[in-house]
Design goal:
Largest sheet: 7 strands, mixed
Radius of gyration: 23 Å
Shape: globular
Structural class: alpha/beta
CATH superfamily of the largest domain: Type I PLP-dependent aspartate aminotransferase-like (Major domain)
CATH topology of the largest domain: Aspartate Aminotransferase, domain 2
Strand order of the largest sheet: 4-12-11-10-9-5-6
């Protein structure tokens, strides 16, 4: 198929040209002028026609690709996607070391590295003691003694759980996906914070669910906004939220707001998925939603954010009446948590290793936050999250857009995630970026934050962002 002679008519006015090209492309697709399967002009040809740089067209195509509008293959070209050819998934933030030329990773919410050689040796001992049973299929996602250990640990964290109610998953994301599969059907509305995880947005796209934004502030989800959303759409019966150290803002729902949420759930017959993966990092935090509403809340957590992401051990505690549905979804998506990893996790939850690593992670986060406060304190214009948050939500000065700032910072060797990636309502994307403090060493983190501070003091016009 020959490339389309598509020639965007760009609006007048001073704005980033790459964004204008992407927006005209999106409008032409929506209007049917570029039907699915249309092959777009090569980037070099379009740049010549528009009399702009090749880099400008490259960024426009990249932005359209992030929005799920286009796709392509090397040697075949770039094509307009249709509803049947696009999963609606935005690319995951780039991984440091994977072709990123040594860029410092502040884009991914990886924990600080607190597990060391001692944990490697302890892992080997736990596997030896577990025996050959770890190579067998397990009932109900995990061996009974592994679920027993998880229930004891969850109960100590303030989450009511018995071995019969706990299911294991391959991490918290797998647990959330299974909960959505069990509790929602294609076309259903799922309420969530106005800023939410790109993973949640991807899950909704894959399952055919409609995410609806609920306004939040520095204290988390606003009860009055949730009430208004439920009154506007009585069919909305499911809330997916992160009440503890919300990603990306770091906000934690206060005890008072949790009680307000409990009252709203009873009034509107609301079911809740509580992603509590960061909750263990808060010392003496507010009660879990599961503790307040055991019959309405599916609680999901894991050991990943305390420093053990490779262990891939997630825990899901659904209401009793929802257990079989969630179990079926876990069987479809992963069948069971890997028994060797579950054996290690169970051993460490019982012998105090997990508790010790939580303390070490809190200390590491505290050190990184102190460094960030010192280097960026004068730039943190929004309310800073609590000290336990390993990421910062950085509002940008006037003139900057989140993706432009992230792109300019990447050219300086630092990766961050723009606010657009978290926005449920794309018409109201905040001009901000998320900075994750966990992945790099303290020395590299200082280098990265120094670059962030320097870029905040410059204007996009002077850097040629609009060219």
């Amino acid at each position: 198929m020959d490339p389309s002679p598509w020639m965007p008519v760009l609006p007048e006015g001073r704005r980033p040209l790459h964004r204008a090209i992407a927006e005209v492309l999106e409008a032409d697709i929506a209007a049917g002028r570029l039907p699915p399967g249309t092959r777009l002009p090569p980037q070099r040809d379009l740049a010549w026609r528009l009399k702009v740089t090749l880099a400008t067209v490259g960024r426009a195509y990249a932005l359209a690709r992030e929005r799920g509008l286009i796709g392509g293959e090397v040697g075949r070209g770039t094509f307009v996607l249709g509803e049947t050819t696009s999963a609606g998934l935005a690319p995951w933030p780039p991984q440091a070391g994977a072709g990123e030329n040594g860029a410092i990773d502040l884009a991914n919410t990886h924990p600080a590295p607190v597990a060391g050689p001692g944990e490697v040796a302890a892992c080997a001992r736990a596997l030896v003691e577990a025996g050959t049973g770890i190579f067998a299929y397990q009932p109900d996602t995990a061996a009974p003694d592994h679920r027993d250990a998880a229930a004891r640990w969850l109960t100590a964290q303030g989450v009511p759980a018995g071995a019969e109610s706990v299911l294991l998953s391959t991490g918290a994301l797998n647990g959330v996906l299974a909960a959505l599969m069990a509790l929602a059907r294609p076309g259903d509305t799922v309420l969530t914070e106005a800023l939410t995880s790109p993973a949640f947005k991807g899950m909704a796209a894959l399952l055919g669910l409609r995410l609806r934004a609920v306004a939040s502030d520095g204290e988390g989800l606003r009860p009055e906004a949730l009430e208004a959303a439920l009154e506007r759409d009585p069919s909305a019966k499911l809330l997916l939220c992160v009440p503890a150290l919300h990603n990306p803002t770091g906000a934690t729902l206060s005890a008072e707001r949790r009680l307000s949420l409990t009252a709203l759930a009873e009034r509107f017959d609301l079911t809740i998925i509580e992603d509590a993966v960061y909750a263990p990092l808060i010392e003496n935090g507010p009660p879990s939603l599961k503790a307040l509403m055991p019959d309405r809340v599916t609680h999901v957590t894991s050991l990943s954010k305390i420093g053990l992401p490779g262990l891939r051990c997630g825990m899901v505690v659904p209401p009793t009446r929802r257990r079989e549905a969630v179990l079926a979804a876990l069987r479809v998506s992963c069948w069971m948590a890997p028994p060797p990893l579950a054996a290690v996790a169970a051993r460490w939850m019982d012998d105090g290793t997990v508790t010790r690593l939580i303390a070490a992670q809190r200390l590491a986060v505290s050190e990184r936050r102190a460094l960030a406060d010192r280097l960026l304190g004068d730039r943190l214009t929004c309310r800073p999250p609590p000290p336990a948050a390993s990421f910062l939500w950085l509002a940008l000065p006037a003139g900057w857009r989140g993706d432009d700032f992230a792109h300019a910072l990447h050219r300086r060797g630092v990766m961050v995630t723009p606010g657009e990636a978290f926005t449920v309502d794309t018409a109201h994307a905040p001009q901000a970026v998320r900075l994750c403090l966990g992945p790099p060493s303290l020395e590299r983190l200082e280098t990265a934050l120094t670059e962030v501070h320097a870029l905040l003091g410059e204007s996009p016009e002077r850097l040629g962002v609009f060219l």
